[in-house]
Amino acid sequence: MTVLDSPASPSVNASAKNKIRVVPFARNALLMLLWLWLYRAVFDYLAIIFTREDFRTNQLALVGVIVLFAIQFRREQARPQLDASPQPNLVPLMFVIGGSLGYLLVERFLDINTISASLFGLASYGLLGLWMNSQHWRAGLPAALLVIGVLPFGEHMQTFIGYPMRILTASLVRDGLASAGVASIGVDTILILENGVSQVDLPCSGVKSLWTGALFLLAATWVERRPLTARWFVVALAFAIILFATNLARVATLVVVGQVLGSQLAAEMLHVPLGVLGFVAGCATAVVLLRWLQPNNTWTQNDADERRKKENPPPSAFIRPPHILFCARNDVPRAGIPVHTATANWVDAIAARVEFSG
């Protein structure tokens, strides 16, 4: 009786493959730990940002980003292959080197923690790009910027450009009311009125709306799968102008209601709804403008591949042992039948069983 050699067990092959991948994974994990150790100074600052009550808005933004990541990662398949060797991708490598050098310069000369943490985030995303496909890495860049954006940029904007923007807004409102025939109202009066009715500092109104709007735009860009091109920056600029215009209309309405009509209580009641409605209208306009851009080719190709796999599923590559036994029992070489003929029949029978089981 002729005994046919059976192929190696799939579980044995998988076990050997997993053992081989342990070495590069351990090497990459060691590299990641070394990377975090080199940037250990920035973690004290991050601990302050994401634990103190003063930065509650940033903490809520981080929770929203984590939820968005969980939803997107279930839909996407682009993840770093940390069980493989790093690849010399040029742009991610430039992020690693440029971000690291910028971090050292900022720590040496400026000592601004927010900028240092931002450069750490950019350099870290560049490091992940050494284990990712370059197209997938570029498509995930808005997500990396979204994570960096939860840092307290809104407070810095309020400090450095908040007062100049408020002066500009008050001046425009004063000129607009004067051209409409309303009695002359000074800039100081408008600023005092706005401070009086703005008892709640909303992230979606005033200067902070630019920071919150930037987070929304990055999140929408990632979800809508739009690349960061020159047209995207045009959309970002238009979105910033829209947010400024809605804030201008909010201040003008508050001045008319509170100063011209003399209803301070009504102005206080309108402050929050006007800020929220203006921000929502600006975000809706930004989504419409984003859809004017062409989607990312990488995600479009991935969607096409997924649809193709669902419409034409491949035949199952797993052959159940009873099928092999059945084929072997009926097609073993017997007297009067050449060995090569019996072997060919055995292979054809296995193929038929695989197609039937798929």
What does this structure look like?
By secondary structure, the protein is mainly α. The chain is built from 16 helices and no strands. Helix 2 (41-49) crosses helix 5 (113-128). Mean pLDDT is 78; it is low at 1-6, 315-337 and 353-358.
Summarize the entry for a quick read.
With 358 residues, the chain is mainly alpha-helical.
Give the N-terminus to C-terminus distance in angstroms.
32 Å
Strand content: under 5%
- State the shape: elongated
Structural class: mainly alpha
The value of Rg in angstroms is 31 Å
Estimate the helix proportion, in percent.
Answer: over 70%
The average pLDDT value, as a whole number, equals 78
Low-confidence blocks of residues: 1-6, 315-337, 353-358
Tally of helical runs = 16
Q: SSE string, helix = H, strand = E?
A: HHHHHHHHHHHHHHHH
Please render the helix and strand layout as text:
Elements: H1 10-38, H2 41-49, H3 56-75, H4 90-110, H5 113-128, H6 134-139, H7 141-149, H8 153-160, H9 162-179, H10 187-197, H11 208-223, H12 230-260, H13 264-290, H14 297-311, H15 321-331, H16 339-357
Write out key terms for the chains shown:
disordered C terminus; mainly alpha; elongated; 16 helices; 358 residues; single chain
